Amino acid sequence: MPAALSVSDLKARLDRGEDLQLVDVRSPSEYLAGHLPGALNIPMDRCEARLDDLHAGRPVVLICQSGMRATVTSNLLAPHRPQALVLEGGTAAWRSAGLPVVVDSKTRWSLERQTRLGAGLLVLLGAIGSFVWPPAIALAIFVGCGLTFAGATDICPMGLLVSRAPWNQAPASPRTEPAASAAQ
Fold first, then answer.
1. What residues contact residue 101 under an 8 Å CB cut-off, 6+ apart?
2. What is the Cα gyration radius of the chain?
3. Within its chain, how far is the Cα of 124 from the centroid?
4. Are 107 and 29 in contact (CB under 8 A)?
5. Which stretches of 55-122 are assigned E, i.e. beta strand?
6. Nearest-angstrom CA–CA distance, 67 and 105
């Protein structure tokens, strides 16, 4: 089990000026929706490939939304950075403590969540539609094939399409907000 760090302990260490490397392991869109000030975004699936971005001489604090992905990442990194710490409760706990987060001008769902919703709705539409018009089941089969392809190749055409939607475009500049207004 990786070493955990509470929000209050992290805040105290940052206030003392300790040289910590904060690493947010969430997806880029989740990171943009709200992250700790100064945190570097290295998604969980990229951490092993980006070991050189993790400073060997500085304590690394892994952060995600709730602490679960950071714990998994800590276990993946254990052979390389055994002293990595995990922020207990993640960004959600940081926000709950009323501490500031950096957000872009639009709070958005992660691309993965948007894609899951879209795929789920299309499968549901195809399945329910097949009761009225049986060939509609082809929509559910098509989406199922697409999800299988995405899982096998790590290429998700629906995710690429969703990433180009206007609401997923980056704003001109990020801003820092207290947790209360960022959660609204």
1. 34, 35, 36, 37, 91, 94, 95, 176, 177, 179, 182
2. 19
3. 26
4. no
5. 60-63, 85-87, 101-103
6. 25
Report which DSSP code applies to 164.
Answer: T
Q: Which pTM does this prediction carry?
A: 0.69
- pLDDT attached to residue 30: 85
Instruction: Answer yes or no: is pLDDT of 153 > 70.
Output: yes
Fold (topology level) of 3-103: Oxidized Rhodanese; domain 1 (3.40.250)
pLDDT for residue 90: 97
Active site residues: 64
Q: How far is CA 149 from CA 108, 113, 146, 155, 160, in A?
A: 26, 18, 5, 7, 14
- At residue 116, φ and ψ (nearest 5 deg) are -60, -40
pLDDT of residue 182: 43
Answer whether 139's CB lies under 8 Å from 146's CB. Answer: no
Give the domain ranges of the chain: 3-103, 111-168
